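Repro case for the chain-ordering regression, as requested:
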Amino acid sequence: MPQYENPDLFKAALVIIGNEILSGRTTDANTPWIAERLTERGILLAEVRVIPDIEAKIINTVQQLSADYDYVFTTGGIGPTHDDITAESVAKAFDLPLERDEEAFAVLEEYYGLENLTPPRAKMSMVPKGSTLIPNPVSGAPGFIIKNVHVMAGVPRIMQAMMDHVLNQIQAGKPLLSNTVTCSLPESKVAEELTTLQNKYPDVDIGSYPHYRGGVLGLSLVMRATNSDSLDTVTQDIIAMIRAHGDEPRALSVGSHGRNLDVV
Amino acid sequence: MPQYENPDLFKAALVIIGNEILSGRTTDANTPWIAERLTERGILLAEVRVIPDIEAKIINTVQQLSADYDYVFTTGGIGPTHDDITAESVAKAFDLPLERDEEAFAVLEEYYGLENLTPPRAKMSMVPKGSTLIPNPVSGAPGFIIKNVHVMAGVPRIMQAMMDHVLNQIQAGKPLLSNTVTCSLPESKVAEELTTLQNKYPDVDIGSYPHYRGGVLGLSLVMRATNSDSLDTVTQDIIAMIRAHGDEPRALSVGSHGRNLDVV
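-- result from build under test --
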């Protein structure tokens, strides 16, 4: 799909580290939030991987994604317990020593008090050599940036604060705009026309998503592009196509763009 | 972590194909459902990847995961539109021809009527040569199994019916049991004791998950094992540890096991 080759956009991968998503215990709420924030900044989320806290798996995943994408974001595994091995594994991925960051240590000393700075808590000041810290306004222990990898906490409230900090500083692309039009046509009825439209407008992604809501089958057509003129033109064509089939677009956002329009 | 090396368990990967999760438009609800069903059947979900509908990305991901895991499950991209390229890509991943399955064609003919079986609809009868079909009781178009890869729809209601069919036939492992104990201790306070317990009981996974609920920091300790005796012993040790710190486990499941106990 063209957006994944659009030179106006940076491409990012997200690595969710931790067994709680894989076990089904916790539903991942971080991906949609991160995807929206990245999109606003012209960064396309191009891949997500959920992996357990196994050192070899983290090393391999970080190496591969760091080479393949402009930016990598990780969540989880930077706490004080035995299953928090992200910092150590990322250091190994880049063949860097893990060392105490004095600024991080000072933050932890301030947060816990020196007398309560036990070895597990002090562990949270260890980062790969050469890292830049990401402040944690919620619970002290910072995240860090090394090369193009941004290592953040998994708890949503902390992750969001860290991500906001990162996104204020990161090199951004051109915002990815989107329009959504919904109708009640079966997607197989418009499949050939959608193919024609997609071929006609290669700089716009046209996605077709059938869904059941209240037992009724519906279809959402989602257009995404960095070029607002192309986006508007395709949207008008889609609306005309739906009307030509005797259906009326039931909810649509036309002529303006932004993440709030992505769900109608 | 030991469960990922436990010979009593099969290991599986899930590939979620489609741009709607990556764009943040849709929250993935399939992973927790699939994880729980697999766990019941002694199959550990060891990795999840969310990828866009780009042929090269699907081919590469399927090849890698099919080689690395006992089972691979995919969701999404088997409908009639231009962005539904999963079947074709999986065929290419295994260097197999994509061919019309007569049984699938008959199902689609029955579902749509021959006069309405347009090329986009007929496309849904195309599967890699040698595939076994997965019936779709909801909307006709089947999924399929080729080698260790199980290709299913992305719409949850259809995916669930397909998964139930697959799990009735698949070679299962020993069920992975779990107990959860929650408390209000900060995890950094029990980190060293948890490490000691984890080292003492290598056949049990001990996970430590801090969370905010209603603005209050809490801690869930999740134990997972296929051996119920080990699981019970660790659980008792964890409870004793919490009480030794002057806290009382607020919600716990002890002595019996199963997925309903996984969230307390």
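Ordering looks correct now. The mean pLDDT of chain B is 91.
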